[in-house]
Amino acid sequence: MELKPGSRWRSAVCDAELVVVKPAKIPVTLECGGAPVIPHAEARAEGAAVAADHAAGSLAGKRYADPETGLEVLCTKAGAGSLSIDGRPIGATEAKKLPASD
After folding, report:
1. In terms of C-beta density within 10 A (0-12 exposed, 13-18 middle, 19 or more buried), how is residue 75 classed?
2. Nearest CA-CA partner of 35 in 14, 68, 12, 6
3. Is residue 1 part of a domain?
4. What is the Cα 99 distance to its own chain's centre?
5. Model-level pTM?
6. What residues contact residue 78 under an 8 Å CB cut-off, 6+ apart?
7. Which domain holds residue 52?
């Protein structure tokens, strides 16, 4: 799985869609709902379901980052599956505070 900046991916088990913002420093497997993501144009397999321990969901418009590998993705379509890297959960990043413009 080559996670290049700008590449589009989607979950194999739910409606989530992602765009890579920053690539990982090392080879990793990005997963959603407990299954590896698939290229955006690829069809989902019939009968695939979100794993119970990876069902926290992913939110559209949120960035998900892993400080350990440097991977950062933007969720462009929400889904029932949560994101993980090599089975390790990753969470949404907090928005950066902008300075006041008084």
Report:
1. buried
2. 12
3. no
4. 29
5. 0.86
6. 15, 16, 57, 58, 59, 60
7. 8-92
Say what the pLDDT of residue 45 is. 83
Is 98 part of a structural domain of the chain?
no
Please determine, for residue 102, whether its predicted confidence score (pLDDT) is greater than 70: no
Return all residues near 70 (Cβ < 8 A) that are at least 6 apart.
22, 23, 24, 25
| Segment 32-91, tens digit of pLDDT | 999 999 999 888 888 889 998 999 999 999 999 999 999 999 999 999 999 999 999 998
Tell me how far CA of residue 22 lies from CA of 62, 77, 95, in angstroms: 14, 18, 16
- For residue 67, the 8-state DSSP code is T
Which single residue is written with the structure tokens 């959960």? 89
Query: 4 and 23 in contact (C-beta within 8 Å)?
Result: yes
The secondary structure of residue 40, as a DSSP letter, is T
Please report, to the nearest 10 degrees, the dihedral formed by the alpha carbons of residues 30, 35, 36, 40 taken in order: -100
Contact 66, 90 (CB under 8 A): yes
